[in-house]
Amino acid sequence: MGQDAFMEPLSSTVGIFLCKIYFLLLAGVCLGLKVTVPSHTVHGIRGQALYLPVHYGFRTPASGIQIIWLFERPHTMPKYLLGSVNESVVPDLEYQHKFTMMPPNASLLINPLQFTDEGNYIVKVNIQGNGTLSSSQKIQVTVDDPVMKPVVQSHPDSGAVEYVGNITLTCQVKGGTRLVYQWRKNGKPVCINSSHSFSPQNNTLWIVPVTKEDIGNYSCLVSNPVSEVESDVITPTIYYGPYGLQVNSDKGQKLGEVFTVDLGEAILFDCSADSYPPNTYSWIQRSDNTTYVIKHGPRLEVTSENVAQKTADYLCCAYNNMTGRRDEARFTVVITSVGHEDALGDFGIYEFVAFPDASGIPRMPNRSGPAPDGVTGQDFHGTVYEVIQHIPAQQQDNNMTVVMSWPQASMTKGKASRRLPGKNSSVTSKA
Predict the structure, then answer these.
(1) What is the rounded average pLDDT of the residues 163-172?
(2) Is the dihedral of CA 336, 340, 341, 345 positive or negative?
(3) Which end of the chain is more exposed for a tag (fewer CB within 10 A), N or C?
């Protein structure tokens, strides 16, 4: 019971104290003195003027209005800059030419702004009436130099080979403070992944290793609180390919790797693959147990009158001299008579059967005579393979599978092996 008697006066005292605080706050709100600023953080540019807008209002008779500006840096006491009573300004003589105020407007003009002006600015407004009302606000000011236009450099200048080389992009800026770097590719931010990494300040981008997917327009966006500037785009050189090699023709029927053309027609073949730099193309023909280059370049024209046999087989080779990679596409041209009177024997399913090039198999000899288009024949290692013609059931005799012995394309039960240049790969064409 004694404890309760002791607690009652203490509770009453605390209650009265809280009521007094509440009454003072309520009185301040009712009297209506309020100081506001548009932003509590303002970014300024060194050497330029900076305006700190301040608004205040009150709903009580006032005999005097006092405005005071203070300045503080971290871990220092606030410093008096200038003040006013009604419309009379009293500056600190040390800063009288730097800070300007025009009361009753409480806003402050700083001119010119220097790095030493960075810190917190405190504005206090006192209203003298029946009593004294006070209110204040704090504004943080930062000072920066604007960003100059960045320049991106790529190393190595000569470019890099896909999956082999690396590329380093460096963003250089000659002017600006508190710089923030962002890398962009085709206008979108570059993110860290297994092949992309950044330096601690983000001003360097490493691509290790480069791939075809890294091709694009890169730029460096540099910003700080007062400016933002983007560099010109740069496109690093990346060597890749060949990819997706294919042979197409302007006419004739195509079934897999077999092209059918009427006797007397001229057919134009086009060899293409995705690559940088562009591939060099070679066209190779097999004839009389010999492989030889007949033309260089992406296109080959075959005139059916110049083909001695009903079938002729060719090879298009694509080579990238920067990546050192090559690819090849085999195809067969079948010549049919106009109206197809004698063409029944040429139709069927053609199957390519390839065998690895054993180390003991010698090179095919060069063709003794000059090749068409003035291209000299060359020796090639390659793949031993067969092309088998499967005749439709109604044309077969005792379910015989015919093996076409190129270039004569005679029908026989035996097998004929030929050598084509290139990788030990097989191409199968089935209906």
Answers:
(1) 97
(2) positive
(3) N
